Each structure stands twice: as structure tokens, then as C-alpha cells.
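Teaching soon. Got one?

===
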Amino acid sequence: MTNDPIETVADDAEAAGRLVGYGFRPKVRPARDSAYAALVKRYAEDPDFETLVTRYAAGMGLRVIAVTTRAGMVHTALPGSAFETRMDQYARQVRMRENREAERILYGITHLAVAALAFPRPEDLADDGYQGKVRVSSIDRLVRSVCRVLAERVAESEESQDPPADAGELEKAWRAYDRRPEVAPTKAGRSGASATRTLISRALAYLVDRGMFHQGRADSEDGENVFRATHRYQVHVRELASTRAYEELMGLGVLPPITGTGTLRTPCSETLYD
């Protein structure tokens, strides 16, 4: 250890930078990296270091959401930051088609549905021990339920089938999703790019790549993969829960009934989750 104040400050700044840097490595966990774990522990126990990390991140254009043993360093880009995910970047990641404005709406409502199904109740979102699970089919069913509710709203209002200019974000999106097929088989037997289940699969792959979900093995009964949310994703959804679009989605009353253990079921009691 050195007694040089300048070198001590430099060491602290370097340590803060390393912790912030771990936030860009979402698949690395403190439980498997002793250096990472030590930095997380120091953040929790040293208020001065916590402040330094927060200020260091802010200077880089980042806001610290949480730093925990389970999730590690979780930060998000501030508006205008160099780290903010641009639509063209996301478009390349999910192989978005040419009509990006329409695709953007579709991916937006899909991500909202993933969050709502992974954590359908406030207590699930608040419980650090709860692990949300989703499937492509359950997400597609939820979004189509939202489409039906929003279509009924328009019909009941006896207005134009085009949502009014001051309609909520979801009301502007329902038509774009509802006219897409669930699956559109290609000659190779795969689902085509225009299918909603292809869109959902790409959105989930994007989240898996960022450490938000783990892709489990295919279910033995129906052969469909189950995606399990990470604590990192739970932290992000807690932030999302304050947005208007998420509140609108949760307020539509289209989520399936929930059992006492948090299992989602359809009205015909078909289990969506294991």
C-alpha cells in the first residue's frame, strides 16, 4: 500500500473504472470472478467509493441502476450518450427489415410483453428470488390479446380504424402486429422473417446476448425452448415499470390468470410455464 494521496486517488479511480467496465460484460458474474466480487463488496461497504463509481459512470454518459452480488454492475446509457443503443445498431442485431419505423413499433411492443410475462405481478418484480420464465408462444399470445383489446377499443369508440393522434403508444402499434402471421414457413421449413414468432425469437436472442435471459433446453412435451430471466433483467424491468407504455400494457387486463405460486395460465388452464 502507498501513502501517496495522489497515487491513492488514481488507484481508486482505476478501481471505479474497472467496476463500471464490468457492466459492459453482462455474462460475467461476481460469483465467478473474485476481482469483480471484491469491487462489488467495496461498492456496498464504502460510501466514498460508491460516489466515485457513480460520478465516474456519469462522466462516461452512464447511470448506475444497481450493483449487487447477483447482478453485478448494471448501468444504462444516459440520453445522447455514446453508449446509447441506436436504432441502426439494434436493427443490425435483430436483422430488422427495410421498413424500420414499423419494425421498431413491433419490437417495442414485443419487449414490453416479454417484461410483463416475465414479471406479471408487482411482488414478482420486487422479489429478488423470483425468476421469470417466458416462451415464444406465450409472448405471441399475449401480444395478440393486446391487439384484440385495442381493436375492440377502436370499434367501440365508433371512430376511424386508425388510432387517433393522441392515442397511447400501444394503440398505435396493434394494427402493425395483428396483420403479421404467427409463422410463415419458408421452403427450408423455417419460419419466415415476417412472422411474429421470428420477431420474438430475435428479440429474445438479443436479450440472451446481453445477459438478460438464459435459454433453457426445449420442453420435452412441446419441444419449445423456455427462456429464464436473470436478476440483471429484473433490475432493468424495475426501471421500465415507471414508463407510460408499460403501465398501459399492465392496465389492459390481458395477462392470463395467475395461481398462488405465480404460474400463468390461459383461460382454458393451459400452463404457459413449467
